[in-house]
Every structure is written in C-alpha cells, then in structure tokens.
Amino acid sequence: MPIRDEQGAILRWYGTCVDVDDLKHEADRLPSILDGITEPIFSLDDELRVTYCNAAAERGLARRGEELLGAKFFDAFPEGRGTVLERRHREAIDERRALSFDAPLARAADAPWYRVRVFPHAQGISVFLQPREPAPASTTGGV
C-alpha cells in the first residue's frame, strides 16, 4: 500500500509477501493421491456436473475422464438416470448432508452394487463407491 505526499509522490510502500510454493505443490499432489485409491471417487458440483473423477471411477463407470469432466453426471452416465443413485445425489446436494446407502449404478438386473458414500462440500458433493458383493437380497434393482 503506497503512502503518498500531497502531490501524489510515493513516500513509503507497505506490503507483505507470502511464499505459496509449498501450497501449490500440495495441491498438485492431491490428484495423484486420489488416483492411487483403487475405489471409484468423483465430485459433482451443485448442478451434478462432474468436477473430478479418479482412474477407478473411469473404470467403474466405463467412461474416460474427458467424457465425464464438465458433463452433467446423468447425461454422461444415462444408465443411472432415474435410479436411487440419482435421487440420493440430489438429496445430498439439496439438504447439504452426508449420506451412505447401497445401490447399483444402473437399472440393469446384473448391474454391480456399491456402498455409496456421499459427502457435501462448498462446491457440491464428493462420492465414494465401494464394491459390494453380492447385491442385498431385499432389493429390486435400486429404482
């Protein structure tokens, strides 16, 4: 912040300097850490657009990251539209609360089941999928 005399000339300058290199390096490491996790993880914004997905999510959803990132999740993954998965994702966003439930990723009878954990954050939700075998006996396709 400059301190000026009556003519506008700078007499003194006060300021601060903060080295953020370490913070930048830590932020760069986070995707590498998440990609090392073998279970699918992805984040959605408040409009259910994909903002992050790890390599396991790409494999589990059978989609490349380029197809998912920036796309609305249920446009990029239409087999999940209308399922409990979509309803609960919307619930977590609308109510801003964490949820945990079992669900298939699609309506198909042979769709794999997952323990789904959803956590709200300032920009949307993060979703963690843990494979569950076999499917719960008391369910009918997760719709």
Describe the structure.
20% of the residues are buried. The protein has helices at 21-35, 55-61, 65-68, 73-76, 84-95; strands at 2-4, 10-13, 41-45, 50-53, 99-104, 113-121, 124-132. The protein contains 5 helices and 7 strands. The strands form 2 sheets. Strands 4-3-7-6-5 form a 5-stranded antiparallel sheet. The protein has a domain at 38-132: PAS domain (Beta-Lactamase). Strand 5 (99-104) and strand 6 (113-121) form a beta hairpin. It is an alpha+beta fold and 143 residues long.
Going by CATH, the homologous superfamily of the domain at 38-132 would be PAS domain
Strand order of the largest sheet: 4-3-7-6-5
Helix content: 25-40%
CATH architecture type of the domain at 38-132:
2-Layer Sandwich
Beta content comes to 25-35%
- Please compute the radius of gyration using only Cα atoms: 22 Å
- Give the assembly state of these chains: single chain
Order of helices and strands: EEHEEHHHHEEE
Q: Could you tell me the CATH topology label of the domain at 38-132.
A: Beta-Lactamase
The mean pLDDT is 86
Number of β-strand runs: 7
Query: What count of helical segments does DSSP give?
Result: 5
Biggest sheet, open or closed, and with what strands and sense? 5 strands, antiparallel
Poorly predicted runs: none
Termini separation comes to 60 Å
SSE inventory with pairings:
Blueprint: E1 2-4, E2 10-13, H1 21-35, E3 41-45, E4 50-53, H2 55-61, H3 65-68, H4 73-76, H5 84-95, E5 99-104, E6 113-121, E7 124-132
Antiparallel strand pairs: 1-2, 3-4, 3-7, 5-6, 6-7
